[in-house]
Amino acid sequence: MTIVSVGALTTAVAAPSLAGSPPPHARTRAALEAIVEQGTPGVIAEVMTGGRSWTHTAGVADLGDGRPRASGEKFRIASMSKPFTAATLLKLEAAGELSLGDSVEKWLPGVVRGERYRPGKITVRHLLNHTSGIFNYNNDDGFRARYAGDEFDKHRYDTVAPRELVRIALAHPAVFQPGQPGRWEYSDTNYVLAAMIIEKATGHRYEDEVERRLIEPLGLTSTSVPAGSPEVPRPHARHYSTLFEDGPDAKVRDVTEFNPTVAWGAGQVISTTGDVNRFLSLLLRGKVLPPRQQREMFATVPVQGEDGHGGPDDRYGLGIRRFKLKEGCWVWGHGGMIPGSASRTAATGDGRHVLTMNRNGDWGEQELEDAAVQAEFCSGSA
To answer: How far apart are CA 365 and CA 158, in angstroms?
Structure first.
């Protein structure tokens, strides 16, 4: 199957516009439809603002039967899981069970060993804000080859232990020393180690702690942490991927089912646009963490250069990013990509205006997602 442009099928709930004025979210709607016109099978977005919700869908949930995308669909949120992992650790700190200044060696003795690594100097905070210097296992050529092209079907149901992911990363030298001034590099390995620390500190599974400390008390009824289950709970769109193959003739494959242990604490959560909006809004409004941990989460470090997850002027806190959309226009949020699912969530600093979007295809230009977020939040664009 080759990538084809899928005709836009749209639904939206919005207040009527005044005569002669554009409908609400008109530019956001246009930007979302442009994503489908470029070749993504389908997209769904939900905006929460002023106590009201607006949803827009375009394209299809299933390339086989042409079923349109629909509100309420569940999807793999990928690295948008990182705020969940970070907030769980911060709740543990608030309860006095650990400290952000604790070393990785204290909680995981003997786990981090390799060329130029100093585990006694790497802290929990370094993990959460990506200043640890630990290599990203997702950048290992051998690891990526397991899930590229035809190899994916051989490995899609494999369970991968967290220590194996860490072992893959530590076969590479440290990228820099922990907390080294002027250095920052996004690494999923950081969040695998963070989830391992959650398990060591509590004696419980990472998945259970996220559900007990965040998902259940916040009423995120459509959110789950699936452990090794390869299934996406219904209702959901099919998830499609080109599996690292490029070009107009790249084969599009259905990757809806696969074992998400390859992402674990870095990207395992499944949710909906509505639940992610609720979580991010509550987080920004100070309804999730005590004041001290709130300040810690939103204390940022500069992002050094373009890393594929945002722009060079962005800043990163603990599992959350401050995106510069254009001059004078900033939002808090995160992006996420896992085979078959690409997502973004963004919000104003007061948490009163939130957008979460998902496309059920992982190819295409990130700039089109950026355009949709910019259209919603930047003055004169929404």
So the answer is: 30
CA 246 to chain centre: 22
Q: In three state form, how does the secondary structure of the chain look?
A: CCCCCCCCCCEECCCCCCCCCCCCCHHHHHHHHHHHHCCCCEEEEEEEECCEEEEEEEEECCCCCCCECCCCCEEECHHHHHHHHHHHHHHHHHCCCCCCCCEHHHHCCCCCCCCCCCCCCCEHHHHHCCCCCCCCHHHCHHHHHHCCCCHHHHHCCCCCCHHHHHHHHHCCCCCCCCCCCCCCCCCHHHHHHHHHHHHHHHCCCHHHHHHHHHHCCCCCCCCECCCCCCCCCCCECCCEECCCCCCCCCCCEECCCCCHHHCHHHCCCEECHHHHHHHHHHHHCCCCCCHHHHHHHCCCEECCCCCCCCCCCCEECCCCEEEEEECCEEEEEEEEEECCEEEEEEECCCCCEEEEEEECECCCCHHHHHHHHHHHHCCCCC
CA distance 232 to 256: 7
Write down the pTM of the prediction: 0.92
Pick the CATH number of 72-273+285-329+344-352 from 3.30.565.10, 3.40.710.10, 2.40.50.100, 3.90.1170.50: 3.40.710.10
Per-residue pLDDT of the chain (382 residues; tens, 9 = 90+): 222 222 233 333 444 444 455 677 999 999 999 999 999 999 999 999 988 999 999 999 999 999 999 999 999 999 999 999 999 999 999 999 999 999 999 999 999 999 999 999 999 999 999 999 999 999 999 999 999 999 999 999 999 999 999 999 999 999 999 999 999 999 999 999 999 999 999 999 999 999 999 999 999 999 999 999 999 999 999 999 999 888 778 899 999 999 999 999 999 999 999 999 999 999 999 999 999 999 999 999 999 755 555 678 899 999 999 999 999 999 999 999 999 999 999 999 999 999 999 999 999 888 889 999 999 999 764 4
- Name the burial class of residue 319, with classes exposed (0-12), middle (13-18) and buried (19+) by CB atoms within 10 angstroms of its CB: buried
